[in-house]
Amino acid sequence: SVYEPLKSIDLPRPDNETLWDKLDHYYRIVKATLLMYQSPTTGLFPTKTCGDDQKAKIQDSLYCAAGAWALALAYRYA
């Protein structure tokens, strides 16, 4: 499912990480969990990623888009 957390989140990271390293880490998470499943034609995100059911809900798509947008803003103002 799109909403399952990545196992790599719990990996230990060095304390001397720069802000850019942290943002890159979050980008990889967003890319693997959200952007990978975005529809190229509609821009919506499916509610389920397994099986043949590819229906998308507007509310779920807005939450996914807000996460990606927040990360983009973090990059812009970093």
Automatic annotation (TrEMBL):
Main location: membrane
Protein's cellular compartments: Cell membrane
The entry's keywords: Calmodulin-binding, Carbohydrate metabolism, Cell membrane, Glycogen metabolism, Lipoprotein, Membrane, Prenylation
The keyword tRNA processing belongs to this UniProt entry's keyword annotation: no
InterPro entries per record: PHK_A/B_su (IPR008734)
Pathway membership, UniProt: Glycan biosynthesis; glycogen metabolism
GO biological process: glycogen metabolic process
GO cellular component terms given for this protein: phosphorylase kinase complex; plasma membrane
Domain of life (superkingdom): Eukaryota
GO MF terms, alphabetically ordered: calmodulin binding
Keyword Lipoprotein listed: yes
Membrane topology of the entry: Lipid-anchor
Protein family: Belongs to the phosphorylase b kinase regulatory chain family.
Matching PANTHER family: PHOSPHORYLASE B KINASE REGULATORY SUBUNIT (PTHR10749), PHOSPHORYLASE B KINASE REGULATORY SUBUNIT BETA (PTHR10749:SF8)
Protein task: Phosphorylase b kinase catalyzes the phosphorylation of serine in certain substrates, including troponin I.
Subunit composition and interactions: Hexadecamer of 4 heterotetramers, each composed of alpha, beta, gamma, and delta subunits. Alpha (PHKA1 or PHKA2) and beta (PHKB) are regulatory subunits, gamma (PHKG1 or PHKG2) is the catalytic subunit, and delta is calmodulin.
Protein name: Phosphorylase b kinase regulatory subunit
Organism: Galemys pyrenaicus
